[in-house]
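Retro notes
What went well: the complex prediction finally ran end to end.
Inputs used:
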Amino acid sequence: MIIKTRRRSDVRPSDITDEAVYLRRREFMGLAGGLALAAAGPLVGACGADLMSAGPAGGLLEGQSPLNDVKPRVVATDEKQNTFEEIASYNNFYEFGTGKGDPARYAGRLKTSPWKVKIDGHCAKPAEYLLEDLIKPFELEERIYRLRCVEAWSMVIPWVGIPLSSILKRAEPLAKATFVRFTTLLRPSEMPGQNDSVLEWPYREGLRMDEAMHPLTIVAVGLYGKTLLNQNGAPLRLVVPWKYGFKSIKSIVRIEFVDRMPDTSWAMQNPSWYGFYSNVNPNVNPVRWDQRRERRLPGLFQNHPTQMFNGYGDQVASMYANLDLKRYY
Amino acid sequence: MIRPVTLVKPVLFVAALVPVGLLANGLVNGNLGVNPAETLQVETGIWALRFLFASLAITPLRRLFGWNRLVQYRRMLGLFAFFYASLHLLTYIVLDRYFDLSGIVEDIAERPFITFGMLAFALMIPLALTSTKGWIRRLGRKWQLLHRLVYFSAIAASLHFVWKVKVAIGEPVYYAAILAVLLGFRVVWRFRPAAASKRGRPAVPSRQVTTPGNHG
């Protein structure tokens, strides 16, 4: 499918810093190929070489591997992208603490390899996959999406991933599968935030079947051309760009086809603040936040008008044609 | 020659300006993190609360330990609380609301954590205005009554903090607990005068009555 390039009046067309990051990445990926970095490997199928040995040359951070064979950029926005550092240092990932800096501080101790993902429920081919086997059959794509947090801030992030629909189709969902439930890893020894009863652990999320199959919905395994750092939801996370960020569940261990609307963590915690759908919507303002405007980080002012469906309405609005969005927020 | 104790006030004054100095410096040099607006808002708010609590700690410290000298710093602490609360409010009006007056009114009406934040600030205004020697003299006994508003301001500020967060754990709860202790002393002393230390100034009229001729 074609993802439209959108223009905004306030777009700044060039950004030296981000472009530089891009160039470095490309250069590295070239290098990587030369170094037989198919080893990047778990994610692209090959295996064997020591990934970290390529670290210094490629500017990889601890815990990162390069991703190669990424399909050319699929541009979903041409707005200025946030820097890698911004994306990796300001996170909501309560499994590691409630402060924005906590995930970057504490997520390092989480072991993401080996990683298994169970896909079950109402489907013909339930299975438990090793991460590499789950991803291997599919081509990685770059998707540059706006991320809109329910806390009224936003970023622009170049994810690398695969459409969720590819993964779901392989399991051959049955007709009675009307929703998909996702679950995050539960491992308090490596996720210190799970020792506090902030939320009912493990974190869980859900999508309606059509939302899950929508081509904009991806499972991301990387950003800026490298594997995800733990604070960004390694090794795999959901990205649903037209919904508030908390719908994009991180560090997924289970994907389950179900026949009724599943409970979701934040809606369980405070149903008047968070709904199941949680579509970005400037016209629905629950008690806690005024969603009409957002702050595009690292900007100072919350003066960026919030777009309906985070600007992806032309592709997703039809799914909600018969839904009262004020009631089903 | 200057006695060391006379230096306390100017040193305290400068120290109280350090947080705002660091924030201003961070803003200019771009090292307030990925969300500088949030850093400014959170830090000015928390310092307002700290100074407010410090001013509320003076009376218990005097009564418990007889540190009567502390009372001379109370006004400064209270005014710094007002100073940081003003900056905090400014971050909201300018950075969050971008001077959108109708949005602000809506917030006050519909979002309890903002209602209470505004209430906490509003209650501080008369206290700041009447903090001068002239007003203290003019209001006499009524001054003390008026300044009891600080209790309500502190309670509103704590509720504002607790309701602001998505999940009430950690810092906001600790601050609320500290306030409960600070106000708890007053409640206890009000209903059980004997619990008050004898080293402090006479705590309640009933004790003063037992020492005839000590006041007019």
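What we learned: Chain B has a mean pLDDT of 89.
What to try next: split runs per interface for comparison.
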